[in-house]
Structures
1.
Amino acid sequence: MIYPGVDCRKAAIRKPIAFYFVFFAVGQFPFVARSNIIRPRFATGNPGEFMYYPFVRKALFQLDPERAHEFTFQQLRRVTGTPLEALVRQKVPAKPVTCMGLTFKNPLGLAAGLDKNGECIDALGAMGFGSVEIGTVTPRPQPGNDKPRIFRLVDAEGLINRMGFNNLGVDNLVENVKKAHFDGILGINIGKNKDTPVEQGKDDYLICMEKVYAYAGYIAINISSPNTPGLRTLQYGEALDDLLSSIKNKQAELQAKHHKYVPLAVKIAPDLSVEELIQVADSLVRHNIDGVIATNTTLDRSLVQGMKHCDEMGGLSGRPLQLKSTEIIRMLSAELNGRLPIIGVGGIDSVIAAREKLAAGATLVQIYSGFIFKGPPLIKEIVTHI
């Protein structure tokens, strides 16, 4: 018996159907399952898992993008931490990778932005990710920008978002992390509050570091979102050096306090010029930063001109970002010359796209928009064949 009223030996429905309906579609599934109406069989590696997502996506894409996200996470919260979490579990091969002094179960991670408050860490981890990066989180709760603030470019398989670091605050996130049992690497992505002046922005990062350090596998420093006014200025010159110096000093202080070393990775934009990229790389090396995440979303609309929503303000992600982010990784890798690892993200929606990021110089890769357009099968496909 895996759950009251669910007899796995008398399966009436295959796992793929249960998998997608509990994850995406049927809000009452956890309660229906208890009543013997549905008796899922918990097989793994079934090719049928790949069959149903297009139908579910079609239904979800009838909803406003943010409503679809909220609905999906409502279902995930219902299974997280319960035996029904098995419904979203995928068995993927172990392909360990060492990066930033940490051993990742496989090179594929979930990028920040999907689980901003760390509410569904275990359920997301059960899908096969080697790492899950939660956030971006800020010291204080904030609502983010006005809605609507996320738009699908379906033909391009891209998204434009101007969310604005909407989150429930770092204290809420820490409480959620304490409840999680994910056995992969947990990254926590931190940022500054919108109403904190950029000149005082480093204080917000230090506050978040203090609170998440004991619970993080690594900490991602987000200075590249285009949706917080002035944030990207922290990528340049003295502002960057001042921030990096401050977070490294804080890291040393917290290492002594907690008797553990938590790596720091800085997330950069894809819109940096060659000269700016060289300067960023030099600063990261000089300050002994542990890793770099390349890249965040882009303001460039050259590949989506004429498409519906293309002129909406915000950062563009998904397939239109794929080549741009890969080229940034390639240039960054050449400049760093192995002195610190790169986590590659931006438009990964296939095994080929993931391999291109690794070939360009990334040690690990992350997905976000590809996960929304292709669903959980993309995780298994990439991890299996990368």
2.
Amino acid sequence: LRGAEYIQHVTLRGAEYIQHVTLRGAEYIQRVTQRGAEYIQPVTQRGAEYIQRVTLRGVEYIQRVTLRSAVYIQRVTLRGAVYIQRVTLRGVEYIQRVTLRGAVYIQRVTLTGAEYIQRVTLRGAVYIQRVTLRSAEYIQRVTLRGVEYIQRVTLTGAVYIQRVTLRGAVYIQRVTLRGVEYIQRVTLRGAEYIQRVTLRGAEYIQRVTLRGAVYIQRVALRSAEYIQPVTLRGVEYIQPVPLRGAEYIQPVPLRGAVYIQRVTLRVRCMCASQYLTHLMSAA
């Protein structure tokens, strides 16, 4: 006991207990079966190497730890959940695989460098994620109840790409938040929507199909150039407009009626009755 080498084999009411300990050198081996709990452990406490396998009420637990260098490996089965983990606490490398009620979860994290990879299946939802928190690169693919979601984000540089299928809606988006370049394609209940926007330069291009209506639009908001060809229920509509200079050109076939109009607003002014008379005479 003073040299502290200890070997023991005990059977206590079905509990089998084996132990080898060198307390000052701190080598510790233990095997225990207590009410179904199997416990095996070699430990060097000063070097702090720790390996453990436990089965506690159906819980299988394997662990290896070096406390000062902090290497941590763990495999756990908790009520059907498979859990594997490796951690280096100072370098903070973290790998984890979990199955929780049918959910497959894989994760790798380096908290200092902040690299994060994750794949999850939660009730049929496939989730893949990679994040570098300081450089903020974020990639994600999710399928949630038929929703397919792909995303790549660099938060500092702010590059954002997204593809989503939401109840038949196809959504693609690329955004540079500081430069503010925005590209989007959406199909929402039959509506096809394509958009490219540079918010500071304010260039706006849009193509939409809404209930059979084809809509294409290009806008430079600050220079106010507006070009639009539209087909609405068989009506073809083309329009280029410099809004501030107010030159307006429009060819329209409307139910067989061909209508062409060129108006320079602010140059020729007329009241409402004169304008209606002008329109009727032109028609």
